Amino acid sequence: MKLMRVNRPELWGWSPVENMDRLRREIDRLFESPWGELGRAGEFFTGWAPALDLVEDNENLVARVELPGMDKKEIEVSVHDGVLSVAGERKIESGGEGEGCHRQERYHGRFHRSVTLPKPVKLDAVKALYKDGILTVTMPKTEEARPRQIEVNIG
Question: Which of 5, 51, 110, 152 sits a CA distance of 20 to 30 A from 19?
């Protein structure tokens, strides 16, 4: 039988708390580097993209796009060949970059979102409203795309 000497962790300077903190800092550093941006919807290559919800009721398709802090003059909306496109540019606010900036997590710069519409819409009746940082695009469906109530006859 062979005896082995075991050192307790505190005797050789190993601290699980320090190591976890070091690991956390290293992961933070990785995600703050340009390649870390790949994990954030590919911003490094394509810019940023606002969140978009597309819902449907009996009459309309409604898209809601989160665009907080933008001026409506910086937002472009179009519907063409069954595709809704929202584009624009969020300007960087003064004092946002430089020596006084400790952390910057809000996206800025150009963006473009396109989504294929599941039903045809009346192009001449599309309306866009921008309020409280939310762009709401209401697109009335064509008559053919609306659900119809069909009467059942007794034979």
Answer: 5
CA dihedral (70, 71, 72, 78) positive or negative: negative
Q: How far apart are CA 77 and CA 139, in angstroms?
A: 12
Helices within 33-145 (DSSP H only): 43-46
Distance CA 77, CA 149 (A): 33
Full domain range(s) for residue 56? 47-94+107-147
Residue 155 forms part of a structural domain = no
Model confidence pLDDT, tens digit, residues 105-116: 777 889 999 999
Shared domain check, 77 and 30? no
**CB burial readout 105-133, b (16+ within 10 A) else e:** eeebeebebeeebeeebeeeebebebeee
User: What global pTM score does this model have?
Assistant: 0.63
The string of pLDDT tens digits covering residues 48-58 is: 889 999 999 99
133 inside domain = yes
The parts of the chain modelled with pLDDT lower than 50 are: 36-46
Asked whether the beta carbons of 72 and 78 are under 8 A apart, the reply is: no
Task: Quote the pLDDT of residue 7.
Answer: 57
Number of domains in the chain: 2
Residues 6+ apart with CB under 8 A from 46: none
Provide the pLDDT for residue 1: 60
